[in-house]
Specification:
Blueprint (H helix, E strand, L loop, with lengths): L4 H27 L3 H22 L7 H13 L5 H19 L7 H4 L2 H17 L1
Helix pairs in contact: 1-2, 1-6, 2-3, 2-4, 2-6, 3-4
């Protein structure tokens, strides 16, 4: 489905805004020590930014795994780094484990180092969308 430029751009900006808003949620829940919830929100912050990029380039996906696979196109083209792809994969796995794993919770040491990485990823996506 091809969207008119204005509509597509509105959705892209909305998703990017969601990424930034969700990153604020990460800081709030981390301050309260809810590490599994912080892992969830970190994933979604990166996911929303990723989807903004995909929509901007008119790449459609219907699943989270599909979106992660399509981001590989940008890694192959050198637009994004391999570390970005690894980060997304790790965050997806962490969200799955934190949300659905029994008798498991993420801890501060697992989450804190990822926050600046997700912030940088969202900034890279933002710059790509400006061009």
């Amino acid at each position: 489905m091809t969207l008119p430029y204005e509509e597509r751009n509105s959705i892209v900006q909305y998703r990017l805004g969601k990424a930034i808003e969700t990153l604020k949620e990460v800081h709030a829940v981390a301050a309260l020590g809810f590490w599994s919830l912080a892992a969830n929100r970190l994933y979604y912050a990166a996911y929303y930014a990723s989807v903004a990029l995909l929509i901007n380039k008119e790449i459609e996906t219907s699943t989270h795994k599909g979106a992660l696979r399509m981001i590989q196109l940008f890694v192959k083209d050198g637009v994004l780094k391999m570390e970005d792809s690894r980060l997304l994969g790790r965050l997806f796995s962490m969200r799955q484990t934190g949300d659905y794993g029994d008798m498991f919770d993420w801890e501060e040491d697992d989450i804190i180092p990822l926050i600046p990485k997700v912030e940088e990823y969202i900034q890279r996506i933002s710059k790509l969308l400006e061009n």
